[in-house]
Amino acid sequence: MGFNRDRLQTLVFPPVVRTVTQQDALLYAVALGLGRDPTDTDDLPYVYEDRQAILPTIAATLCTPGHWVADPDLGIDADSVLHGEQAIQFHRRIPLDEPLTGHSRVANLWDKGPGKGALVEIECRVTDTQDRPVWTVNRTAYLRGEGGFGGRRQPPAPVWALPDRAPDLTRDMPTGPHQALLYRLTGDMNPVHADPAVAAAVGFDRPILHGLCTYGIAGHALLHGVCDDEPARMGALSLRFSAPAFPGDTIRTEIWRTGSGALFRCRAVERDVQITTNGTLTFSKGPLP
Question: What residues act catalytically?
Answer without folding.
Answer: 188, 193
